[in-house]
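Re: that backbone. Tokens:
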């Protein structure tokens, strides 16, 4: 069997997969949206004896430079092939990242003569496409109601305590509607304003957040502000998550 990364093929029997781990990726409400697979590859480059120490070292340098160059590029297909050249079950065909480029953990003995020990760590992350292009994973909204009563002010006096005075018999009613939602696939759409005729349009806010990694999670936040001469009351908008 042999390992191939992109167009670079290792010699048969040169590499072993010392470990393969597959970790489930979950949303904050514990729904799996993908998998992270990580390979630890241990190998040993072997060359034919060139006759002298200097010639062996020069030939090994050429071989190692080719190995290093091959793994300097991310996002190539990585797979183990059987002796007939067929891809085995151990393969990562997309989103492959070389998280540890060819490293050389052993330097004792005859290393860098006719052989050189190395290690590579590769990782790939896959996401499960949601049905319909989107799955809502979190939703929260807050409605805040402010004002609407008489306005009282306190006047400082030259002597004695401040004086309480009625400045306005009535004030406008104010409200805010803010929320945050996360979905796998597409950005979630915010709900409409609860009091569209009383909205302060110029104060409307909407934010789209990039996912923290290569997952398909997307976050939208929103904020509406309202003002009215009539009292306003409403419950926050509800959305169910999967």
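Recovered sequence:
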């Amino acid at each position: 069997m042999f390992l191939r990364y992109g167009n670079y093929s290792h010699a048969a029997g040169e590499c072993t997969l010392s470990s393969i781990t597959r970790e489930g990726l979950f949303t904050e409400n514990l729904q799996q949206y993908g998998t992270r697979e990580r390979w630890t590859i241990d190998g040993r480059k072997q060359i034919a004896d060139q006759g002298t120490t200097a010639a062996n070292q020069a030939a090994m340098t050429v071989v190692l430079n080719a190995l290093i160059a091959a793994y300097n590029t991310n996002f190539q297909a990585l797979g183990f092939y059987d002796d007939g050249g067929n891809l085995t079950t151990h393969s990562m065909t997309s989103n492959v990242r070389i998280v540890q480029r060819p490293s050389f953990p052993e330097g004792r003995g005859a290393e860098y003569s006719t052989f050189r020990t190395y290690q590579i760590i590769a990782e790939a992350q896959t996401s499960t496409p949601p049905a319909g292009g989107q799955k809502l994973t979190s939703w929260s909204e807050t409605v805040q109601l402010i004002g609407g009563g008489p306005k009282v002010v306190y006047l400082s006096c030259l002597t004695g305590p401040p004086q309480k005075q009625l400045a306005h018999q009535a004030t406008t009613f104010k409200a805010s509607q803010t929320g945050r939602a996360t979905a796998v696939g597409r950005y979630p759409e915010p709900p409409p304003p609860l009091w569209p005729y009383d909205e302060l349009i110029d104060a409307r806010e909407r934010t789209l957040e990039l996912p923290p990694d290569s997952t398909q999670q997307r976050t939208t936040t929103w904020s509406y502000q309202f003002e009215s001469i009539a009292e306003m009351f409403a419950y926050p908008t509800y959305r169910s998550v999967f």
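The mean pLDDT is 91. Residues 2-128 form a domain with the STM4215-like fold (CATH 3.30.2000).
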